[in-house]
């Protein structure tokens, strides 16, 4: 399995401010994924981050609001900019890794629980 | 229409019961299918992949019907520890990458 850590684990922020979430993986991976899980909802992909290139954003998510860095193969950051209460959510980092047989399993970090007041 | 649809539940069952969850997906080009389990305030974890031939892992059986775009999960002899949210997940191609699309999840509560 992949060991993924995220910082911070939770935060309470004021509207209009920004928060940067860090994701660290225990080994090198090509792609890292950032998801959002709003209260009572399922996971929604925000963007896919390849090392050395611009992140690819899903419909409804833009770089100005959710800038992503991917400086190396084990680390990524997601910034939630100019926050509003609607950004209150759990943000999860994820990676893919080959496991048994031909299964390419996706592992998730523990998540960052963000509350915006 | 959501790309992956599930009955949100909750399904309340006694220990030892058999329970089945269903899921439908809208993208016929979807390539891989999974069931993930998510415990309260935890991250999702892979429970099992789903193959056209059907697959079984202990008390869990998953089935895929590509023609009907339908996925199922059967849990036999339910345990208290099976209480969780079960997420139906579909992998599709997206702008050169494969991406996972999650259903909203079906909540299972197993009681003594």
Brief summary of the model shown:
Chain A is built from no helices and 11 strands. Chain A has strands at 4-7, 10-13, 19-25, 31-37, 43-50, 56-57, 68-72, 75-80, 89-98, 104-108, 112-116. Chain B is built from no helices and 11 strands.
What does this entry look like structurally?
The complex is a heterodimer of chains A (117) and B (112). Chain A has 117 residues and is mostly beta strands. Chain A has strands spanning 4-7, 10-13, 19-25, 31-37, 43-50, 56-57, 68-72, 75-80, 89-98, 104-108, 112-116. In chain A, strand 9 (89-98) and strand 10 (104-108) form a beta hairpin. In chain A, the strands form 2 sheets. In chain A, strands 2, 4, 5, 6, 9, 10 and 11 form a 7-stranded mixed β-sheet that branches. A 4-stranded antiparallel β-sheet of chain A has the order 1-3-8-7, with no helix packed on it. Helices cover 0% and strands 54% of the residues of chain A. Chain B is mainly beta and 112 residues long. Chain B has strands at residues 4-6, 11-14, 19-25, 32-38, 45-50, 55-57, 60-65, 70-75, 84-94, 97-102, 106-111. In chain B, a hairpin with a 4-residue loop joins strand 7 and strand 8 (70-75). The radius of gyration of chain B is 14 Å and the shape is globular. The A-B interface holds A 31, 33, 41-45, 48, 56, 58, 92, 103, 105-106, 108-111 and B 42-46, 49, 87, 94-97, 99-105.
């Amino acid at each position: 399995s992949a060991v993924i850590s995220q910082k911070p684990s939770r935060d309470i922020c004021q509207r209009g401010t920004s928060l940067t979430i860090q994701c660290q993986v225990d080994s090198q991976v090509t792609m890292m994924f950032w998801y959002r899980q709003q209260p009572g909802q399922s996971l929604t992909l925000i963007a896919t981050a390849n090392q050395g290139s611009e992140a690819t954003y899903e419909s409804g998510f833009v770089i100005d609001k959710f800038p992503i860095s991917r400086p190396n193969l084990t680390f990524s950051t997601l910034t939630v900019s100019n926050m509003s209460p609607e950004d209150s959510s759990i943000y999860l980092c994820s990676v893919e890794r080959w496991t048994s047989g031909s299964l390419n399993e996706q592992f998730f970090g523990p998540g960052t629980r963000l509350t915006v007041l | 229409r959501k790309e992956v649809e599930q009955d949100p539940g909750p399904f309340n069952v006694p220990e030892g019961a058999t329970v089945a969850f269903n899921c439908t997906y809208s993208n016929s080009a979807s390539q891989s299918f999974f069931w993930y389990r998510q415990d309260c305030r935890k991250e999702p974890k892979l429970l099992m992949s789903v193959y056209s031939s059907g697959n079984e892992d202990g008390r869990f059986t998953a089935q895929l019907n590509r023609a009907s775009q339908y996925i199922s999960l059967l849990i036999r002899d339910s345990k208290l520890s099976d209480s969780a949210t079960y997420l139906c997940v579909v992998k599709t191609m997206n702008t050169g990458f494969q991406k996972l699309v999650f259903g909203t999840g079906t909540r299972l509560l197993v009681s003594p």
